[in-house]
Structures are given as C-alpha cells and as structure tokens.
Amino acid sequence: NAATPELMVIRRDALDRAQRAARGRMTRWQGRLVRLPRRGAIAASLAAFAVLAGGAYALSERGDVYSTGRNERRIVDLEDGSKVSLDAQSRVAVKYSGEARRLTLLKGQARFDVAHDVARPFSVRARDRTVVATGTAFNIDIFDRKARVTLIEGRVVVLAAPRPALLGRPIGP
User: Fold this and answer.
1) Structure-model confidence comparison of residues 18 and 103, the more confident one
2) Chain segment 60-74, per-residue pLDDT in tens
C-alpha cells in the first residue's frame, strides 16, 4: 500500500533532499563547491521523485505472501480485518487495492473469515476456482488440479476458470 508509514517516511525524506538540492543548487565536486545550473537542479529533483514514485508503486503492487511449514498452522490478521487460517504446508498471496481484495491460495488449505466490505469484493483464486465473498467464512482445500470449497457461514459465489478454446470455439457443453 502506497500509504504505509514506511513509504510515507521514504517519500518525505526524498522530497526533502530534492527540495534542499533545488534551493541551494550547490554541490561538492572534487572537494570544491560548484553551483549547479537551475535546470540541472530541477532535473535532479524530478529524477529523484520518479525513482521514488516507481519504487512505491512496485511495492504497493507486490502484495504479501504467507506460508506455513510442515506441522505448522498460522492465523494471519489482514489489514481489512479479515483473517486467514493456514493449515500445514500452505501458501497464500494477498493483494489489496482500493477497489478489490484479491488472494490466491497457492497450495494447501486455508479458512477465510472475511470482513464485510461491499465496496471492495474479497476473492480467492485456487486452481480452477475463484470464490467471491463480501462477509462470510469459507474453507478452500487444494487437491492436485482441483480446489474444494466448503461454505461455513454466509454466502459465496464460486466461479469456474474459463475453459480452453479449440479453434476459437469452447470445448464441452
């Protein structure tokens, strides 16, 4: 998330450095103070800001990955108030945006206790299924190429992955 305290501190520090560089337009080169041209100071400031903005965007798009080892179970409290309970040897990727909460169960088994937020749907992708919920509890267990979804309470919508096409036409009924 681009608004995390760590990113805010990094952003503030970079902007402070850029402003100081632009105000002074002075730098040290081989031990002597040298006046930079105004365009050079502005270009340096813009370059620093571009690098910082790109890094913040990359960090916000990365998301988080949680996993458990053999004989380990873990409960993860997510930033929206939802909880993910991971069974042994499980792995889940979490990626939130302003419009959606997207998770991917990469392996194993997990229970999802979803905080209600109609404006940001909560979806979990697992193998050949995507489960969408707004405030409920459900479990997903991955078996080989399939995912088994168990509803604990509330409502979910389970969507199948799109079927492969053969010469532009869907296969099957």
Assistant:
1) 103
2) 455 899 999 999 999
Contacts within 8 Å (CB) and 24+ apart, 61-70:
61/95, 62/95, 63/93, 63/94, 63/95, 63/96, 64/93, 64/94, 64/95, 65/91, 65/92, 65/93, 65/94, 65/106, 66/91, 66/92, 66/94, 67/91, 67/92, 68/108
Decide if pLDDT at 1 tops 70.
no
pLDDT > 90 in the chain, percent: 41
